[in-house]
């Protein structure tokens, strides 16, 4: 069935239809609470893209989702369902924060950044290594272990922040604010140059780090021998074994890359926005990453687009909730849930109909020709 | 043959009449305008190459698929069969190629499965037992209802499948490639059961690609080619050659032309190899064999007698428990070598199951053309793969092996079985290996491609390669091999030259070794014509473990 759709329909048309249906159902929900769905939609789109500030926030959220979407996608290419991006990002935050705390007072941000990248990625990778190792060597299912590791990560960070990293005299479980060297520059200047006024948004340089990661993931998966091994492993473990691709090694490294990408997500909130480590830096982005990867078909380009969509839902949804008192924050969660439902869980719902349609078109055009050849 | 009264009843209403059945999958037209009439109380054979549309047609009849157009009549009434329950209600039963049995259930439990009768099992169990007794008596299909299914030999498991269908009231039985897993003797038992069923008024549809079975047991034969029925004839009025020609659409060379072998030095030497599977059951027991340069050594045997484990162990996919393998005079250290490093040492492996091992079906063709050789310097620099080198390489192979369609970017799943196999063969043969392990080279491959593949294998032999061939197709083993080893229950039970008769090999395949064989005659297909009676005790069933 998969083969009957041309690629553009598979990658563009089908997600667009799914999205449309999700929005139609969301509109019905908005009608049910007594609001005008078109006005709500307008508020959401305007809130996300209508102003420089809106765009800045949308891209800030999208940055998180790009990192976690890539994290989930790399694991999926290896046949692993990494639910643990949430925890890996949190632990990655520890690595970023330590780099900024130690070095921020002595060297400028552009020297701290490489260290923060390495530490954030390696802390996240370490948190991905353990479930990967358990899966590869002990056969413990990675879905179960990564969920558990999310809780362990939360507890670990709680303990570290309360008992060790909290400065004396501070009430909240947070680190001290980094010195200036631990601050990533905002993209204010660039955006202003492009004509958008983004003075007060948290959008920062890690957006470009995310885009670079997209390219690197593409190279890794489709242009390297190791990526070939990852894909073989993900599509057919028995063929991987036949080909001499070492399953345990491939699984462990793929989980480490996945965890590393999740860990890099912490750059955005920790080094780019808050300039300190808190307990809620990830805010569910790890889970949204699953939807982003699904919707983006595990391809970096698709992930960027899906991340933008979810960034829009986060930012535009907040604006909508602000302007429409009857629509609460919970309603936004409902709409996001519907998008995940239709774009993720039910992504194949319209595939048979669409296939039939394309087949009918195909027959009309090509059948006589094929008949002649046969 | 049925008596005249039955004949008349039969003429009134055929068991099944299909008219104008068509079914497409995407752009593939699996069935085209098929008309088929199956007489009551007859055994109707349907033959055709793989991909000819036999299974699709039967799946439509059994409610797995819906026909795009056409009508189905059962017993003279037009019906629609939207799901398999509807087929069962109409008295159609199916015995699948791969048994659909729960291994840790007893025979009785398996037969009841899906027809339990009520929420509590006890009442239904007693009724089922009584009903099973009656069926067993009527058709002389004895099986111990309390035996665990996994303990039964394959032939008896198949019998359970038939009982299952009869228990559900089947009057029309569809058997899909039923003899693929059976020894020649077991196949004879099956044919006797089928004849017994026919005498009791059941209708049997037998799907197979083995022409001899068609000749031995059917009343009528329909030949399918490219989704169409090209011929339906009484079996008595046709011949193997005529059917083969209709299947392929041209005359087929069933023999392989080859020169006498010129064996050179020993290239592959296996000594006392023992392999256990994941359940710690020994699958290969103390096997020793040699393969010389320039010869083809064939391993014959019924599927599941250790051939797969043997070849996969030599290829480095499984670990040997004991014993050694030497290649080019060097002992292979399987703790250190994996399939990739063995390829570098000059061993190539065409796996038995190309879908599970030999190919990644979701890959583009050019990606599969380097599977296992993806670390080779020819396909990229350092850690990177060169897409252009991969495609260039794939295009060359496509041309050499006439792989169709000639599109190296097409998804591998979209190639036919024969062309998929050519992708694997091209990859493994063209890297100039010293030792070539080949498993089931023509399984699921159309007849035209078989000729090509056999010719390539013989060419490799003539180029001085040592070839170890495993196949469950006895004809293939006999056509290609210079020496034939027969495997039974994990052991090599005999060696024969290429001139060995089918009967000789058949006995060895059933485990009757040279020492204990006092019957010179092989189980002959003519035995089937004798009156149906109690089958001889099934003592020599492969897969049965002491």
UniProtKB/TrEMBL annotation, chain A:
Single GO molecular function: transmembrane transporter activity
UniProt keyword list: Cell membrane, Membrane, Transmembrane, Transmembrane helix
Record carries keyword ATP-binding: no
Compartmental location: Cell membrane
Annotated membrane topology: Multi-pass membrane protein
Species assigned in the record: Notoacmeibacter marinus
GO cellular component: plasma membrane
Pfam family, one: BPD_transp_2
The protein's name in its UniProt record: Sugar ABC transporter permease
UniProt xrefs under InterPro entries: ABC_transp_permease (IPR001851)
Segments passing through the bilayer: 12-34, 54-76, 88-105, 111-130, 142-162, 203-222, 251-271, 277-294, 301-321, 327-346
TrEMBL record, chain B:
Protein name in UniProt: Heme ABC transporter ATP-binding protein
Matches recorded under SMART domains: AAA
Classification via Pfam families: ABC_tran
Membrane topology: Peripheral membrane protein
Originating organism: Notoacmeibacter marinus
Record bears the keyword Membrane: yes
Subcellular location: Cell membrane
Molecular function as annotated in GO: ATP binding; ATP hydrolysis activity
Annotated family: Belongs to the ABC transporter superfamily.
Domain ABC transporter, chain residue ranges per copy: 16-251, 268-514
Domain of life: Bacteria
GO CC entries: plasma membrane
Keywords, in A-Z order: ATP-binding, Cell membrane, Membrane, Nucleotide-binding, Repeat, Sugar transport, Translocase, Transport
Residue ranges of the region described as Disordered: 516-546
